[in-house]
Amino acid sequence: MGGGSAPRGCSGSWGRSAPRGAGSAPWPCPNLSKGLTYNVSLEERGGGARAAFDSGARRLLQRRAELELGRQSCLRFPFHVLDTTDYLRPLSFTVRLALADPEGPVLDEESPSTVRKLIPFFKDCGEDDECVADLVLRATTDIAGDGQSPHVLRKGRRKAVLDAVLENKGENAYNASLLLRFSSNLLFSSLVLQDTNPVKLECTALGGHRRLCSVGYPVFRSMAKVSFTLEFEFSCSVLLGRAEVSLEASSDSAEATPQDNGVQISAPVRYEPDLFLSSEANLHRYEVHPLGTFPHGPGPEFKTTVKVQNLGCYPLRNLTLRLALPALGYRRAAFLSVTRVLADNATCELHGPAEEPRGGGPAPVVPVHPEDLLRVDRLDCSNAWCQELSCALGRLERGGEVSVHVLRAVHNDFFRAAKFRSVRIVSAAALGVPGGSALVLGEAARRRETVLEIIQAKRVPISLWILVGSILGGLLLLALIIFCLWRLGFFTRKKLPEEEEEKEEQ
What's the pLDDT tens digit per position in 59-72? Predict the structure, then answer.
């Protein structure tokens, strides 16, 4: 590094000539050395540090040197390159010069006081020194479905796997990266390399549902290929109708075919919550006695409990519970009726049987005639009019449950007038989800039935002669008992001592 132009003899100025004028005299001969201050910097305008000097690990050095006139001096500034993501843009090396003594001679105004050089990195990009990569990305997933048959997430099957292959068919790709985006109903689980390829993938989390992965840092070489597997888990709190994953490969090199650098995967999904629907009653069998026999009056009141349990990880809301309760028979005669409904965390509304079906509804119900019950062993909503209890369930947290208690009474008069031996009254409970929901219900949560069996007590015929004989036999037995007691003196009245004294005085 030089210190400027050399003076012409001892009578000239070092770097600049003296002004011309009368009586001007040459300066005395200067000293044989001059002091010089300088600053050495690396990438003073760069946003991030890519290199630093070995001394102090800084990007800026301030030094002073003594330069001898007529001689050339060489100074060394060793530096090292830091871990960087940019190996295409060269490093800049800048030197700023100034004389240490501001009162003495000055530098030549035509000599630059700032020198800036670029130090390029070595790039294996052919003779033109321009890398043109050709990244090709392919991916498949195990989530299969369409609008008609979406992918259903069931218990124990809440994972999604994406297999991908990234290949560089062009020249070296510097600072290659893979940007991963996924929908908010997915949680990133892991990235696993499928083979022992030396290409490494290292991922960092970005804001939102994004990951940025470096591919073969610092250079993804020509004709290199890497295969990897991405694993996701579906969120328990965010339920969306579609699962979406996108991958986009890029690098600092030029790209030959950018249209095959990205993959977009989207599939419709439905969620099957782990719900358990149970129904239980405290009366399973009831015997109806004939008219005029014990017991008298209406039948008993019994309770049916329908319980909905959330055994899965999804908190649920807007579920509906519908109970179909057989109530009326032929000529709308009641055989069962709802007396009370008790529910917690649910809003229930009871609807009576409709006389006529609604437009476009099912065919009208034709109740079974009481005399035909001998040929029917089941009463349900297909051959009897039913009351419908509709309940809107509140929010059902994980591990939570909702119970609905329905109290009903049996009407003995209906069954006493009918001819049957045994008939089963079947009540049904069904869960439902609102239209357009991302939920689907499994078989265990869809429908439950409760059965009440009504049995008619047998009539025992009694003969008239048996009745008359029983009465006569009872009367004879009563007379015999009275005769025995009379013989034993049970009916003889004993006299009191006062009465005997009165009789003696008389």
Answer: 788 888 877 777 77
